[in-house]
Design goal:
alpha+beta; HIT family, subunit A; binds zinc ion; binds guanosine-5'-monophosphate; about 120 residues
Length: about 120
């Protein structure tokens, strides 16, 4: 598991790596995905390091709500709220999780296939 100091999303939160930030709240940051899979593809991350959704516990209840609110604000700002959007949390290899810092994908702006590939 990556140390926090090596974590690319912690470094984006700290302003050490560039990212196109689209929204923020006291404990979350939202920025565009480097390799977008839809017209809107934004990642919402907690500003504190949390490895993934499997590391969440009851102590993260307020943080989870804050992630969801920031995601909704992103959807509104991107103009996809009315037509719909998808929120995704990948956990582990089979889901294709590559960055070990919790991130909520906000995908929209096109018809999204279900189930995902
Ligand atoms: P995962 O597959 O772990 O759920 O999603 C990781 C996402 O982070 C991928 O969609 C990937 O394109 C994105 N990503 C990886 N490195 C960076 C980066 O340095 N900056 C940004 N903005 N996105 C990144
Ligand atoms: Zn991190």
């Amino acid at each position: 598991m990556a140390e926090v100091g090596d974590c690319i999303f912690c470094r984006i939160v700290a302003g050490e790596l560039p990212a196109e930030v689209v929204a923020r709240s006291p404990h979350t940051l939202a920025f565009r995905d480097l390799d977008p899979q839809a017209p809107t593809h934004v990642l919402v991350v907690p500003t504190e390091h949390v490895a993934d959704a499997a590391a969440l516990g009851p102590e993260h209840a307020a943080l989870l709500a804050e992630l969801a609110v920031t995601a909704r604000e992103v959807a509104e700002a991107e103009g996809v709220r009315d037509r719909g959007y998808r929120l995704v949390l990948n956990v582990g290899d089979d889901a294709g999780n590559t960055v070990p810092h919790l991130h909520l994908h906000v995908l929209g702006g096109r018809r999204l296939e279900w189930p995902p590939g």
